[in-house]
């Protein structure tokens, strides 16, 4: 995701835009740029790096004017670079874009055949050319934008300047956030209201398909049917600090709630809904000739690898090895030519995972990187890249990146299965329908977050937690324990539920809380008997179970019920209460939730 700021009014725009972009850096910070109407020309300054770099560059070439647009980028198409930074300019048109244009390659090829030349690798640049072509045909700015956007598939929030129309800004949106502000000194547009709050609390929230025309003292909105629309302004009374987290108390909580969106963005454009197949053009490898598959990662990403193993073996019937990044290179791995090493890393910079990739490549294997940061080190050295689209994850404790990793692994497993013909079409159809339905189920689950707050209060004095699960939910027990450890500093251990009788059950005593994943699946009866083992020895049970289960409530002390989904997709739901329980325990303990002690967001040392 990226950040957009635009303003037109009676004040100089530059400082308003730069200050606003700084507040939006959490949305992306690999490059930034600004375009200002200055002496009736639209002047653009952009650079790789953060807003501080942009400030330095602007200081060298002063810009002044009362109408402008700005952008801070989280690269999805095209590496982080000055050329790929927004704004993009083509003749009359200067544009900034936040979102993903899924069909940009086809449109770009058509435009190139018509003689258009592009300077960037981005999807966004095509929009400047499309709007310009319409203007040349005598269309109005609104018509030009409407006609151009009608060709696109995907998501967008855009702001644009047209040189012949100084002191006006046009905006449009489709499934990407954009808020408008109307103040005493001008009008504003931004990816979130944080950037606008210092100038006005009167906000307008346009709807998907709206085209908005901003001038210094008015905002006109044309809806998707071409009619003038009234969007009632709302007065926002948030304080700026709270607003930066979109009203959430911590980035971690905000990112937990973003997961329906980040999972959707990760599978967006990758599922053929007619043939119920998966399209991964970025993985241009010969799937039929793959030998062994190794999944290597660290921390939470390693637990995603364990789930990936389950998915690939179940769907594609290929054996999969999993390794912790810091162990792989020291165990003389048998990986060889023809094998595939799939690394999983949110940051793409984790030293141990990077070293594992290099070790595998040294032994002749090819590398696929599943990462959330475009062109970070690990994707850069890997032969193939499968990116998650979770957007910047600011909280040190990984949440939305984890569910995005599972989504990417699911797509990878399905692609492998397709190439090996191991799945009947009917099964594929059912599973893909369930995948498409998942974001709304995730939304349903996180909307009951307050129930986990109630449970967390009950165990505020606990000094230890046990987490147990079976099958595909066993790695979720491990992840739940890690979340509890890393943000609330309470000792927690995850185990396969069947292991309890081999030792851990000795830990059970009065008041020791055990979190049990007991969703209705083939292993339900077994997990219930494990749960009874714990209960009968005085343990407290917090059960993560299925809606409609009227048995588990008789045994568990606390219950959180999940909507049903396909067994293979359960981790994308069962992890949510785990994240929320750890979050609220940490809030009650008063720890630094977003930046826990001793931890870093990216562990770039061994
Ligand atoms: C997760 O909550 C932790 N912050 C940590 O375990 C993290 O998953 C691990 O360091 C791996 O990071 P990566 O995904 O960026 O490689």
Number of strands: 26
- Whole-Å distance between the termini? 30 Å
Overall, the morphology is globular
Number of domains: 3
Q: What portion of the residues fall into strands of 2 or more residues?
A: 15-25%
CATH topology of the largest domain: Glutamine Phosphoribosylpyrophosphate, subunit 1, domain 1
Gyration radius (Cα, Å) is: 25 Å
Which properties best describe this structure?
606 residues; 26 strands; Rossmann fold; 18 helices; 8-stranded antiparallel beta sheet
Question: Can you give me a brief rundown of this structure?
Answer:
Helices cover 35% and strands 22% of the residues. The protein is α/β, with parallel strands linked by helices and 606 residues long. An eight-stranded antiparallel sheet has the order 3-2-4-1-10-9-11-14, covered by helices on one side.
């Amino acid at each position: 995701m990226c950040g957009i700021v635009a303003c037109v009014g009676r004040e100089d725009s530059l400082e308003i835009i730069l200050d606003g972009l700084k507040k939006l850096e959490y949305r992306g910070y690999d490059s930034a740029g600004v375009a200002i109407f200055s002496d009736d020309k639209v002047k653009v300054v952009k650079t790789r790096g953060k807003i501080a770099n942009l400030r330095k560059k602007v200081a060298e070439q002063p810009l002044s004017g009362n109408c402008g647009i700005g952008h801070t980028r989280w690269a999805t198409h095209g590496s982080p670079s000055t050329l790929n930074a927004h704004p993009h300019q083509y003749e009359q048109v200067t544009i900034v874009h936040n979102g993903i244009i899924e069909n940009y390659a086809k449109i770009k090829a058509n435009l190139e055949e018509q003689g258009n030349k592009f300077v960037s690798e981005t999807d966004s640049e095509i929009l400047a050319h499309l709007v310009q072509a319409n203007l040349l045909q005598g269309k109005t700015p609104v018509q030009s934008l409407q006609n151009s956007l009608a060709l696109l598939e995907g998501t967008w929030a855009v702001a644009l300047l047209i040189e012949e129309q100084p002191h006006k800004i046009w905006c449009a949106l489709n499934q990407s956030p954009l808020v408008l502000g109307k103040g005493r000194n001008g009008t504003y547009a931004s990816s979130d209201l944080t950037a606008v709050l210092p100038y006005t609390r009167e906000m307008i929230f346009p709807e998907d398909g709206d085209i908005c025309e901003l001038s210094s003292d008015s905002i006109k909105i044309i809806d998707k049917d071409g009619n003038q629309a009234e969007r009632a302004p709302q007065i926002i009374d948030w304080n700026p600090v709270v607003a930066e987290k979109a009203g959430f108390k911590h980035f971690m909580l905000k990112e937990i709630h973003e997961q329906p969106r980040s999972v959707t963005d990760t599978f967006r454009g990758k599922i053929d809904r007619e043939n119920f197949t998966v399209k991964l053009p970025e993985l241009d490898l010969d799937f039929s000739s793959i030998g062994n598959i190794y999944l290597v990662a660290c921390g939470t990403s390693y637990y995603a690898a364990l789930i990936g193993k389950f998915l690939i073996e179940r769907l594609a019937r290929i054996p999969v090895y999993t390794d912790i990044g810091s162990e792989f290179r020291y165990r003389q791995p048998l990986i060889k030519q023809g094998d595939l090493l799939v690394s999983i890393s949110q940051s793409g910079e984790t030293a141990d995972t990077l070293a594992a990739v290099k070790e595998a490549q040294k032994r002749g294997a090819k590398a696929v990187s599943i990462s959330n940061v475009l062109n970070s080190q690990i994707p850069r050295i890997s032969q193939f890249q499968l990116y998650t689209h979770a957007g910047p994850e600011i909280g040190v404790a990984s949440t939305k990146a984890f569910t995005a990793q599972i989504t990417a692994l699911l797509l990878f497993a399905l692609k492998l299965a397709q190439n090996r013909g191991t799945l009947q079409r009917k099964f594929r159809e059912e599973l893909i329908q369930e995948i498409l339905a998942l974001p709304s189920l995730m939304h349903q689950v996180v909307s009951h977050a307050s129930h986990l707050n109630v449970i967390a209060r009950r165990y505020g004095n606990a000094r230890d937690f046990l987490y147990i699960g079976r099958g595909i939910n066993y790695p979720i027990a491990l992840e739940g324990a890690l979340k509890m450890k890393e943000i609330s500093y309470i000792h927690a251990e995850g185990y396969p539920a069947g292991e309890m009788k081999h030792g851990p059950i000795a830990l059970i005593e009065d008041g020791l809380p055990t979190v049990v994943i007991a969703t209705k699946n083939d292993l339900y009866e077994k997990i219930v008997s494990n749960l009874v083992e714990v209960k009968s020895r005085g343990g407290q049970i917090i059960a993560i179970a299925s809606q409609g289960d009227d048995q588990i409530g008789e045994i568990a002390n606390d219950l959180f019920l999940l909507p049903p989904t396909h067994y293979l997709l359960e981790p994308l739901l069962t992890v949510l209460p785990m994240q929320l329980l750890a979050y609220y325990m940490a809030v009650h303990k008063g720890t630094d939730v977003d930046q826990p002690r001793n931890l870093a967001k990216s562990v770039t040392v061994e």
